[in-house]
Amino acid sequence: TVSGNGLIILTVLVDIQLHCPMYWFLCHLSLLDMTISSAIVPKMLAGFLLDSRVISFGGCVMQLFSFHFLGCTECFLYTLMAYDRFLAICKPLHYATIMTHRVCNYLALGTWLGGTLHSLFQTSFIIRLPFCGPNRVDYFFCDILAMLRLACADTTMNELVTFVDIGFLALTYFVLILTSYGYIVAAILRIQSVDGRHNAFSTCAAHLTIVIVYYVPCTFIYLRPGSEEPLD
């Protein structure tokens, strides 16, 4: 994961022809993919290979914060990439003046800040809970639902906040992405050239596939009624 995404970033940086908003956002996506894996996989591998299955409470909180910070930032970035494709296909004559280098930087920075605020909000609700046992995290990393099961207090409010917060964010941005693609599909269907339609569809198909792969698991994990089996 790290080497593959590193090659993507290196390719975009080296090739001047790729110095455009779409590939700039792709670099951010690759960086997110590298870091979100690095926040979970090393400790998980240590548990599998070295039987080192002990994690401190602080380490658990850091893992929780990192995962939701990076995951939420990725959610924002997918929406931003959909908006970029909307401008490129539906407003091609205005694209260069709207999506300037400075605007791209501000938008990318906004996704990272948004992910930070979201994760701080979620993590703050977790660390206020009393944890007096059990201390076994029945999951392969410290996620919200796994940690809530360890709390020695009523977690109904936490579960509600998690459901509403993550549910509202996921649903809002998924609708925004679908709206962008609704306009994109309508614009593509008006293109007379077969090659033009093919190029436009191929550009958007990969991004739309990734969006579906990203949102469907999130829906099953966070937006469904609680289960007695944490790993189901």
TrEMBL record:
Membrane topology: Multi-pass membrane protein
Signal peptide location: none
Main location class: membrane
Gene name in the database record: LOC103581984
InterPro entries the UniProt entry points to: GPCR_Rhodpsn_7TM, Olfact_rcpt
Keyword Amino-acid biosynthesis on entry: no
This protein's record includes keyword Transmembrane: yes
Entry protein name: Olfactory receptor 10G6
Domain of life where this protein originates: Eukaryota
Annotated localization: Cell membrane
G-protein coupled receptors family 1 profile domain location: 4-232
Membrane-spanning parts: 61-83, 103-121, 166-189, 201-223
Keywords for the protein's UniProt record, in alphabetical order: Cell membrane, Membrane, Receptor, Sensory transduction, Transducer, Transmembrane, Transmembrane helix
